[in-house]
Amino acid sequence: MLSAEELTVHIRACALNTRESQKLIYSSFYGYAMAICDRYAKNQEDAVEIINDGFLKVFREIGHFEPAYADVVSSFKGWLRKIMIYTAIDHFRRNHKHQLVSHLEEVIYQVPDHSADAISRISHEEIIRSIQQLSPGYRTVFNLFVIEGLSHEEIAGHLGISAGTSKSNLAKARRQLQKLLFRQQQIEIKRNAV
Amino acid sequence: MQFEEFDKKIREAADQHHPAYNEKAWTKMQQLLDRHLPQEDRRRRRFPLLWLLLCAVLAGAGFLWLAQTRSTGSHAVTQTGRPGGLVTRSEPGRRSQDTDLSSIGGQDIMDTRKLARGSQVDATPHDPASRPLKDSGNSSPQAGKKAAGPSVSVSAGPGVSGRAPAHISRSGEGSSRRAAGTYYRDSEAGTPHSGQMPDYRHAPRRSAQNGMVSGYRADDSLSTYRTGRKTQPAGLLLPEQWAGADLLAGLWPDSLRSALDLSEDQALAFLAARNRTPLREVSPWGFSVSAGPDLSSAGGHYVGRLRLSYGAGFSYTKNRVTLRTGLYTSRKIYSASADAYHPPSGYWTNYADLKRVDADCNIYEIPVSLAYRLGQSSGHSWFVSAGLSSLLMQRETYHYLYKDPSGQLEYKGWTLYNKNRHFFSMLDLSAGYQRALSDRVSLVAEPYLALPLQGVGFGRVKLASAGVLFTLQVRPFQVRRSGTTQR
Q: How much is the pTM?
């Protein structure tokens, strides 16, 4: 990761559309940004499309970037994260809006207790891959609510759906994810048994 | 398992998820940037300016060269039979109303056709002052007497003009012949016609533009003569015309002087007028534009990449020595080992195990050098040059290849702008070949070697360069030739 001083220099250079600095910032924050985009994308190809669209916005607007607080790197990360999330939302709205399910009555799904131990044994990578396997609508709502910490009202505002639909999608996303993770765990257990 | 625990596990997974950098993703990103934020714009803006400048210089040089070629080519200048030789100008197809002296390249010449016209007493409709010479009766005994003297002729050979030779002769073959270009004298007085020898101190002035003599037309002179004598035939050559023709050789033969019955003072006046002719030479100041491949190296087994170096300069030449300077820009791409890279003390806090430094720098270079011309033949010369260069580092980008404390190989870069200037930090050695396109324009090919006298850039790298510079040199100005009196 770049130091604060280096980042400041390269941000200035990026404002002048210097390709070398753009590459440096891209490569330095690729992992951070891709971690976000991966969760919103179905596969690696989609994730790259989102991250590149996001960085394009970053490089277009980088001249207006001003650190919100003393730590330039953290400020930049926060700004970058926001842009990546919004880009992912745009990407979803552009491609998958029709996949959002309609409003359902609020249902609270409980994760079965037997899966608590199982999920603890699942790697982070497997969890992310499982999130990617969610349907686009569920995935987006799940990410925005669980990881980004947005409220249902905010999600509804961003996605152009009602808060009820957001809740419904979240509940279904949780169930679907649990199933995915549990199935993976079962497969893993069976594989070990053999 | 409650939602909170499940969500916590998901958040942990998200926090710990750090995909590795993918170069293919950058390739796609670069395509996207090239499409939406094209970087080439700046270069495209810069290069047309450069090309425009180059074209302007080339056009100027070409114009000068063409102008010179035309003036020497279309005017076939020949000098024959000194003394009394004539430099004639042959311009087929051109019918000028001017009837006497012209000037080419600082020399007076006489238009053969005009002489011929004068000799044939061919008054053109455009020349009201001229009329056919049939006044053979104007021939005088004096003239006949003169005809007995040495025959002086000024002629243009057919090889020169492509026309029948025009003769300005004074012979004893009769007055009718004498009219053919003969200097006309007042038969009564035995002095130049009307007794008005022109004031040669006010001899014709040249037009710098076309080399023609202005304010000294034969017509005018004839008019002057006519005022003294209405029967004065037109189209005859006047003494000053003779003088102009003859003085081309820089001589004033006694035979001619006596034939024309000119006093020595008058002859000297011709010479003085001749000597007052402004003669100019090319200024020692020259301007140049240069471009060529440049290769940099910081020593070791690393060799940089070939890049274009270009710029403009000016020079001052005195005898065999030329003082040159200018402003050149080049992009130096090179790699240096950790030993060759010496950043300011205290800089290394992170990159302890540096493996290599890749540098990409834009540099302005201001060389000051002396060139000594070794040899010269027609249009060619060779020279050697030595000098010192100052480097102004406009942009320095350094990428460090290093191992972090965990032993992981990392590659990190940064850029700084306009931070370092190194005056007289390079020793420039070169040798060159110069080919003159004209006396003002020349092309130079100059292989060079730039050796470091001190470290340059942030890492104080001993950077050496080599390349070949191709230069178009123009010396556009003229100065008065020393020893020549300007009128």
A: 0.38
